[in-house]
Amino acid sequence: MDSTWHLHRPDEPAAVRLASALPLPLELARILVHRGIADPETARAFLAPTLDQLPPPETLDGLGAAVARVAEAIVTGQRILVFGDYDADGITATALLTDFLHQAGASVTAYIPDRCQEGYGLQPRHIADPAETLGCRLIVTVDCGAASHAAIAEARRRGIDVVVTDHHLPDATELPAAAVLNPRQGGAACPLAPLAGVGVAFYLAIALRAHLRRLDWWTQRPEPNLRHACDLVAIGTVADMVPLVGVNRVLTHAGLAVLRETRRPGLEALLAVSGIFPADLGSQDIAFRLAPRLNAAGRLAHARLALDLLRCPDPFQARQLAQRLDELNQQRRQMEADMFTEALDRLKREAPPSSRRVLVLGDERWHEGVIGIVAGRLARQYHVPAVVLTRCDGRWKGSARSVEGLDICQAFQATAGHLRTFGGHPMAAGLQLDAGGLQDFTRALEAAVARLAPQIGAPPPLAIDAELDLDDITPAFLDALSDLEPFGTDNPQPLFAARRLTVRDARLVGQCHLRMTLRQADRPAARPVNAIRFNVPADHLPEACLPRAAFRLGWNRYNGRCTPQMIIVDT
Prior knowledge:
The chain is α/β, with parallel strands linked by helices. Among the domains are: 60-224, inorganic pyrophosphatase (n-terminal core); 351-452, Diaminopimelate Epimerase, Chain A, domain 1 (Roll), CATH 3.10.310.30; 462-570, CATH 2.40.50.460. The protein has helices at 12-21, 26-34, 40-47, 63-76, 88-103, 124-132, 149-157, 197-214, 230-239, 247-261, 265-273, 283-300, 304-311, 315-350, 371-382, 408-414, 438-452, 475-481, and strands at residues 5-7, 79-84, 107-111, 136-142, 161-165, 179-181, 359-362, 386-392, 395-401, 421-424, 428-434, 462-464, 466-467, 496-509, 513-520, 529-533, 545-558, 561-570. The protein has a 5-stranded parallel beta sheet with strand order 3-2-4-5-6, with helices on both faces. A 5-stranded mixed beta sheet has the order 7-8-9-11-10. The longest helix is centred in the middle third of the chain and has 36 residues, at 315-350. The radius of gyration is 25 Å and the shape is globular. The chain starts with a strand and ends with a strand. The model has no long low-confidence stretch (mean pLDDT 93).
């Protein structure tokens, strides 16, 4: 299906006033106004975020109890277990909090479960081992714990306290924990509600540092500079696709600056194997290069590899770990491609995907660590929610990805009678069901989706931020555009449109990428602009003229030269 285009038309007088007040190119002022930023002071804070814009930690419910219990463990020498999740958010959160507690002189051990052998989150089995086996008197969860009622009750029975730090939506049942630090407990109005798991861990470290300062704790050891931990916050925040506005924008902006300084041997090695020059690093590099390699460890091996990389002090060992993550990521990409092809073939054999409101596919051969990525690709291709499952311990274990307009957890709630467990976010969730229940679950889910979101199935309109002439695409304009970084959820990279273009030349590069040089058709003497379109069929070369093109803008770096480049996404 072809996408329809929708050109944003913001308040033009407001855009003119904002462009004049800052000053700012009018095209960028229009984008800001459309995104709800029309006041000059608000715009200045958005374009130049600083750490002093962070909301205070005291806005987090449960902070006082969490700080008091963790500080007690530090001061009295109780062993602490930091228990994290196996995705990039959980790994970075585990590294951040473990490093901070170690700098504070705590007796601390980090633990991340095996995705396939242990599953997600703190479970009763983990209280006996590793917590009790290691002699831990306190467990601090990061990026998990909001649903670990049985495990926390078991910990209490054994005399072990649990402090939960999480950002997943809590249920109505109160956790029997020593403290619960979850910004979503305060509702959407809480300025810290959008935090990722690593952001919650960062805020706990901020408050702990201040509390220990009041105890004169830092007179005996160096006080940690928490700005240096913002690199981990940026990686986990971008990887978890939480909104990159407000507090997350501030933290990610600061973290990108720290990442460019490459303070950690592990991250320096990871940047190198990812082909990233630190000075050029942006949020898209985290999303598409760093995060997939960190996630590959938990998907195909053990997330401990990624945690060890982030905490590694030795450059030689760091290079070895980074190379291993790169190899795992290549393996993951091949497995993903094979599974996606199998899924497409099966869909075409069974029924036209365009006739469905939800896609449910299961295969006992599929790898548990990759099914979520395949579900995401299916959802994007067919514009409907997708559930992909594999068999594990006699049950179907699956991962779901949704589309705009449907809260997949709400749909699972409507089919809860067919599920053993489920949980997650509105756009992504995990689930388990009995081996013989797949067909009944599929029918129930189709009915639930039809009732909850009857409108889904068509591709969403392509939202165009502004129309540009090619003459507007200059280095100065790209420099101004970079002030809108970091890009991500709720602050997407701007999408532009140009009309009446002439294709000066076109050639395939790599296996399926089309590189072109474009001119404005009515100004043949004007300066040409380089363009590229990714993943183009080999037999699909453009006509001499392009009536229109939708594109994003970036830099083409080649042989020491840096020139503007259009990244074509639709014509």
